Amino acid sequence: MIEHLIHPLVCERFRTDARYREGHLRVVNALPARRVAGLHSPETKLLAKQLSAAGASVVMSDGRQHVCRNGAQLISCFEAESSGSLCYEETVIWGYLINLEKCSLDARLAMLARYVPVLDNWAVCDSYCAHAKWMQRADKEALWEFLQRWFRSEREFEVRFAIVVSMSYFLCEEWLERVFEQINAIDFTRIKSDYTTVKSKPVHAQQGTVQGTEPYYVRMGVAWLLATALAKFAEQTRAFVRSSALPADVIKLYVRKARESFRTRMVEAL
């Protein structure tokens, strides 16, 4: 849709250095059907800001062209387009545009409700959440209510979205108990993943594979949230983990994350 704007901004090294390109693809780990143009995060954010302010001419997958005069019109085009036709960077930019819109909470949540089902990758999910600074100022009760449908989802990255938002904007004394309740209620056996588990690390970037039990990115999301909670609320987090119904492998991932973090490597995890 806007790949004609993305490709000229891709660095020469990604185009010409196979090893560098391989490393980028390995980190992003998009599903095989999702094209990765190779645009780096700073350039992606800058392009999103420019598009939000000035709009752009877009080309839909059926060949139709539209002139979008601002970010809101671009968001409407993204919503009308088949998500499967978008490249990785386009899905990231779509999320950034939602964050950049100046609108009411209801309007933003409506746009977000149409965006979250498009999430199919950890990097798209986490980059959106990290840049959704409007959530710091939002009505927390309304935002928490919005998250409930995603906590109950059977799709891997819809659940991860709820987890990462909770970790980023709800890990405080007031909300800690409710966050832990939601984490404890996750039924990992119901969540469907499009990623395939492999036993050994592929020599070359093999998009759509993980080295862990499915749904891998939900399990890692929970481990990340708990390790972050440990840094802020060590006693409460240990008590929760000891009494929780979390799978043993998730607890192991949490302990590993806690030991890897400079904030918690000296803090008892269990």
Describe the structure in brief.
About 55% of the residues lie in helices and about 5% in strands. With about 270 residues, the chain is mainly alpha-helical. The protein folds into two domains: about 1-135, no CATH class; about 140-270.
Protein described:
The chain is mainly α. It has 2 domains: 1-136, no CATH class; 139-270. The protein is built from 14 helices and 4 strands. The strands form 2 sheets. The protein has a two-stranded antiparallel sheet with strand order 1-2. A two-stranded parallel sheet has the order 3-4. Helix 5 (71-80) packs across helix 6, helix 8 packs parallel to helix 10 (156-169) and helix 12 packs across helix 13 (234-243). The longest helix has 17 residues, at 216-232. The radius of gyration is 19 Å and the shape is globular. The chain starts with a helix and ends in a 10-residue tail after the last helix. The mean pLDDT is 92.
Strands, total number: 4
Helix-strand topology string:
HHHHEEHHHHHHHEEHHH
**Tally of separate helices:** 14
Mean pLDDT level: 92
Rounded to the nearest angstrom, the radius of gyration is: 19 Å
Class derived from helix and strand content: mainly alpha
Q: How would the global form be characterised?
A: globular
Assembly state of the chains shown: single chain
Strand order of the largest sheet: 1-2
Percent of residues in helical segments?
A: 55-70%
Query: Strand count, sense and closure of the main sheet?
Result: 2 strands, antiparallel
Distance between the termini: 49 Å
Q: Give the domain tally.
A: 2
Portion of residues in beta strands equals under 5%
Spans where pLDDT lies below 50 across 5 or more residues = none
